[in-house]
Amino acid sequence: MTTLEWADGRLRFIDQTRLPAEEVTVETTDHLVVCEAIRSLRIRGAPAIGVAAAFAVLLAVRKSRPSTPLELQAVLESAVRDLSATRPTAVNLFAAMRRMEEVAREAGGKNVAAILDSLSAEALAIQRDDIESCRSIGELGAGLIAPGSSLLTHCNAGALATAGEGTAIAVIAEAARRGNVLRVFVDETRPLFQGARLTAWELVRLGIETILITDSTAASVLRRGDVQAVIVGADRIAANGDTANKVGTYPLAVLAMRHGVPFYVAAPTSTIDAAIPDGEHIPIEERDETEVTHFGGRRIAARGVKVYAPAFDVTPAPLVSAIVTERGILRPPFHDSLAAVLRRGGAGGETP
Ligand code: MRU
Description:
The chain is of the alpha/beta class and about 350 residues long. It has two domains: about 5-135, translation initiation factor eif-2b, domain 1 (Four Helix Bundle (Hemerythrin (Met), subunit A)); about 140-350, Rossmann fold, CATH 3.40.50. About 40% of the residues lie in helices and about 15% in strands. The chain has helices spanning about 30-40, 45-65, 70-85, 90-105, 110-140, 170-175, 195-205, 220-225, 250-260, 290-295, 335-345, and strands at about 5, 10-15, 25-30, 150-155, 180-185, 210-215, 230, 235-240, 245, 265, 270-275, 295, 300, 310-315, 320-325, 330. Strands 6-5-4-7-10-15-16 form a seven-stranded mixed sheet, with helices on both faces. Strand 4, helix 6 and strand 5 (about 180-185) form a beta-alpha-beta unit.
């Protein structure tokens, strides 16, 4: 399954809003189609958003056929603005935009064709880096999963959310290949059901025993001692380790601590935002109220009710047992381990 694919100057992607009922692939040369797809969660998941946005910048520049480097630069900046306005929380989007802008700046003295080549190479590199990060996160994180473990995850941090095998799901998949996973409990993940629609779909395809639970069932499953580790992805990790992920992640972390179960976050270093000191500074997207008041296109909530619909919540760092990155497994104090992993490039082992 390829979530995102660049071929012949086109971006192809799976429309995730149609899963699991239909596997529909969209093909486009228009960066505004990608903007809409990100906003409406046809393309979703922090790393996948970053990769798609990088290709979307390339689409915009190619389509405009600029005749001068200055013209190219203007189109690029305008596309970056469009894409940056789609979703505010996942920092991978902004990291990818920075990489594309930097490449254009560095190639500034070259002709238009050469700048286009550099941009194309960079978008492919962003995709390749993410594939490689997923592989490495899977390898390193699987070492945390003891034989015979039942796991619990929330939302979707799998192949659909990345360019590779996923983050949390890469860990689960690799641990399963090593024969260490008994089963995985999947939160349905209200209100858009990324767990029920996407994670359950991926895990069943991987041949892993998957038990779907409503979000509010997690507490009793943990209390019964049926889960040996909780593992989730992330949309943005602040310098102190506070972690934004799909709303409903924070209560899981509280429950995990209450029941003495490790709570792991799996994310590439592109999800770390060293520029913000803590979770208070993470912008939390609020979604349209109809995502809560309606189900399957039909209103389920009383008319006149007010709605609060944040897409993400922030898990305070003290509730996180470890952060699995492609460069190593980070342990508290995260302020130090995160700073160290960013200083050091390349892949690594346990705590850097
Ligand atoms: O609103 P979504 O579906 O984009 O939210 C996605 C998540 O919260 C994921 O857990 C996160 O992006 C990590 S994906 C590897």
